[in-house]
Design a protein that fits this description.
The protein is α/β, with parallel strands linked by helices. The protein is built from 7 helices and 6 strands.
Length: 268
């Protein structure tokens, strides 16, 4: 597909008076609406900016990506002006964790402004066993049942073939993105000199059936500074057990806002 997005991956322009922009990258088969309630749960001064990949929700008429390298390249070109304007951080959930990390790695290689921190949730580091299955391992019925089993789909939709015909092709293309992570320009975890000079905070659900906490902890092999938190809930812990997760994330963001050199709070 073309890597020139017809519609911005951001649903709106960032707030000019925000002290920190938090770019949020959604899971496979999901969309920017996953983050619709986050602004009200995070500290004042943090501008929550969900990133919408094409082929879903408000961008459903656009062709979807199937390759991690293309996703990272396209997002890098579109988001670069916004990432260079001021302090920013990113949160990526499941597939979005890989996309956010690869995008950050590309920004650092290109000399762009680095993030204040990177937050990764519910996704194994690439050196570990894959979090998500290959795109063609399951037929539609099996894939839908898998979604139900790990909390990505309500059981009431199993009999809705019309709805599944929309959802499952999106999910399969996103699984192709995940399977192609080796084309996303990630650093070599076995080369200490390749570790990225940034701080990563990773979150794992204690009851996640798709990824073990130790596989999430392996992200520490890719960066100079790392912190790991296991929170209650499964693969979608921000929805299943929101209070503990948002408590930890809010505290981490508050530390960034209180750090020396952080932008001052807006008057009033």
């Amino acid at each position: 597909m073309t890597t020139t997005a017809a519609v911005s991956c951001l649903g709106r322009e960032p707030f000019e008076d925000a002290r920190l922009r938090l770019f949020c990258f959604h899971h496979a088969g999901g969309g920017a609406s996953f983050f619709s309630s986050w602004a009200g749960r995070l500290p004042p001064g943090v501008d929550v900016l969900p990133v919408q990949l094409p082929g879903r929700e408000a961008r459903y008429r656009e062709p979807r990506f199937q390759d991690a390298g293309e996703v990272v390249g396209a997002l890098g070109r579109e988001l670069a002006p916004r990432l260079d304007e001021g302090p920013w951080a990113a949160y990526g959930h499941s597939m979005g964790a890989m996309v956010a990390f690869a995008l950050t790695a590309a920004r650092l290689r290109e000399g762009g402004r680095p993030p204040e921190a990177l937050f990764l949730g519910a996704y194994a580091a690439p050196l570990a066993a894959p979090t998500l299955p290959p795109p063609d391992r399951y037929d539609d019925r099996e894939l839908a049942r898998l979604l139900v089993d790990f909390g990505g789909l309500s059981p009431q939709f199993l009999g809705r073939d019309d709805w599944l015909r929309v959802l499952l092709p999106i999910l399969r293309d996103d699984l192709r993105i995940c399977a192609s992570h080796h084309r996303a320009g990630l650093p070599d975890p076995d080369d200490e000199r390749a570790r990225l000079p940034l701080h990563v905070e990773a979150f794992a659900g204690a009851d996640d059936p798709l990824v073990r906490p130790d596989a999430v902890r392996a992200w520490g092999r890719y960066v100079h500074s790392f912190r790991m938190t296991t929170v209650p809930g499964g693969h979608f812990f921000p929805r299943q057990a929101p209070d503990p997760f948002f408590g930890h994330l809010s505290s981490a963001l508050a530390r960034l806002l209180a750090a020396p050199g952080a932008p001052p709070a807006a008057p009033g």
